[in-house]
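Input record (Table S2, row 353):
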Amino acid sequence: MQLKTKILKLDENNIDAEKIKYAASILRKGGLVVFPTETVYGLGADALNQNAVLNIFEAKGRPSDNPLIVHIADKDEVYKLMMDIPDDAIKLMDKFWPGPLTLVGKKTSSVPHSVTAGLDTVAVRMPKNKIALSLIKEAKLPVAAPSANLSGRPSPTTAKHVIDDLNGRVDVIIEAGNSDIGVESTVLDITLWPPVILRPGGVSKEQLEEFLGKVDIDPSLMEKNLDMLIPKSPGMKYKHYSPKAELVVVEGELSNVVEKINALVEEYKRKGLSVGVLSTEQTKSLYNGAVVISLGDRLEPKTIASNLFKALRDFDDIGVQLILAEAVDDKGIGFAIMNRMKKAAGYKIVHIS
Ligand code: TXA
Ligand code: MG
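Output record (magnesium ion complex):
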């Protein structure tokens, strides 16, 4: 399917209502509109229109057994999509919406099976980005939206990433700068109590624990070998976020990590490979003989989250064959960062003590 993609430039602090009206009209007609959210760009369609939803899967090349998140602009919309919601989950919505928390609960009959990939649960979130909210409000529809990348590629955190992947495959791309958070929402299963984190993301485990007392973690997130377990969040089983180059994560005490990466750079260069290093501000000057990209400041892990996907795509553009990545502390947003980094590496991890 080759479409003429219209690119609409919008400013979150000064939203052009006419452009929002146009994009909303495309959604209402069953078209595909890419829009910014505070996490990553989303590829949206009318969640209640089975055909429109099927077109999302086609545009992304997404396996049809991987369900989509439905985006709403008003908390009360959740009751049309989800039922048997525990009172404590409503408190979660009050606390964390709008924001990077997706709740998985029992679906109502109005949600098409294509959205939930046949599951009897639905994932819902209310994004924080003002453009996303005004688009959904104007369309007066719940909007199904996965990340706006080709399936398997790193999620898009700039409109350029979206255009690289989806130009000619969608009707509209809203261009609106860099995503604030840079990793996707936390997916939380509220059909169980305490709720279970199915995917770590923009709201940290610690933030949820502080509010809920206890939160569980899906066992597939704790294991290196995903094939051993059947993840509850179907999306977690696919190879994901992958740059074209082979990626290897090196974890352990930081000075040892730097030493190990330098030794690996030497070894692979001798074999004739071009090598990249994903470093941090604290370590970027310590590497020799490789293309170095700094993800950000170890003391400000948010900077690392917001740069990770871009850095993986930048290495694709540069064209290195092997990327060696420093692991970071997996506290707070670091849990989501390490989850994405290890998945991008296909769980190739070197641990040095
Ligand atoms: O931040 C985000 O969540 C972004 C922005 C665009 O909102 N969206 C996003 O969507 O990351 P996607 O499709 O790339 O990831 C959705 C994740 C997948 O891992 C999927 O398996 C899981 O949510 N999911 C969706 N519905 C589910 C359900 N009913 N039960 C369990 N997991 C579900
Ligand atoms: Mg995705």
